[in-house]
Amino acid sequence: MTVKDQLKKTEFAIGNPCWITKFALSRGIEEGRVLSVTEGSAWIRIYSGEFCSGTEVFATRKEAIEYAEGMKTRKIAALQRQIDKLKALKKFK
Questions:
Q1: Is residue 44 part of a domain?
Q2: In terms of residue numbers, what domain contains 50?
Q3: Which of 25, 30, 61, 87 has its C-alpha lying 20 to 30 A from 72's C-alpha?
Q4: What is the pLDDT of residues 25-55, one digit of tens each?
Q5: Are 58 and 64 in contact (CB under 8 A)?
Q6: Could you tell me the CA-to-CA distances from 7 to 14, 49, 74 in Å, in that order?
Q7: Is 93 contained in some domain?
């Protein structure tokens, strides 16, 4: 679901909780509160004190977890390709 679709939903309104997956692979999924909503993006207050806006903001924790699982799968695949390339290198002399 895109941010524009989410912004049309009533539960993605100012003051409601939301979940941010921008740093899901390093810090985990963060919960925040919607501060303002504009065309195509939302400004979020994260409890760690940061603000963010963009496509990695979800109205439900379930959607955030599904997106983060996809991020993890893509990262594992990229790392596996990198490992395969390193294994394919000729031995050093």
A1: yes
A2: 3-88
A3: 87
A4: 999 999 988 887 776 666 777 777 766 666 7
A5: yes
A6: 10, 23, 26
A7: no
